[in-house]
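We store sequence, tokenised fold; for instance:
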Amino acid sequence: MATEPRYDLLSEALIPVRFRDGTTRELSLPGLLSALQAEGVESFPTLRPHQSHPWHAFLVQLAAMAIHRTGGDTEPASTEIWAERLLSLGDGQREAWCLVVPDLSKPAFFQPPVPEGNLSKFGKWPGGTPFPDEIDMLVTAKNHDVKQRRIRRPNSSHWIFALTTLQTSDGFLGRGNYGITRMNGGFSSRPSLGFTPGLYPDDRFRRVLRGLLHCRASPLATLELTCAGP
């Protein structure tokens, strides 16, 4: 049994990226953020259609928080700089960026720590599942529309995208199937609406990232005013 964290998004090339020059390369998460700041990213070959917005939202929110935390700007940064930013965002805990962390007292990628060290009470798959699309947010229990367990030979990117979608958009699905804290109600949804200069992910990324950082001061000022009270 492995005792060390595995599949480190900060240092391992786990995310397949197709570029507009026709090549496909696997990048680390810092490498992807660096590539998105430049032009050339066409798509993500293993990303399913319904995962497109959660993945986009995750990338721009992550980049905005990392830049704000470290006092950076939206100018293109190297893979090494992005790795430092993300590590700082995780308070120096590299485990927070790993898909598999045997020590349950520590967080993993989109997975909270479990201080009691026991997963037996966690959801429908206490022993785990070999299918990343089984933990995805789509209601596929009856195999309607989108079939479940289609990804028979998953790679790390399938798990990355499934976890990101689950922890961004999953709602309440009945007793014992509670949603995530980022949803504001049992059966609510998180629609996406925005303007984009193009359909390429790097064009959208750069525009939304600039907007998030530019508008950040406004909601913070409102929140401080509300908390201060009359």
Q: What stands out?
A: Residues 6-228 form one domain. The radius of gyration is 18 Å. The chain has six helices and five strands. The longest strand covers residues 15-19.
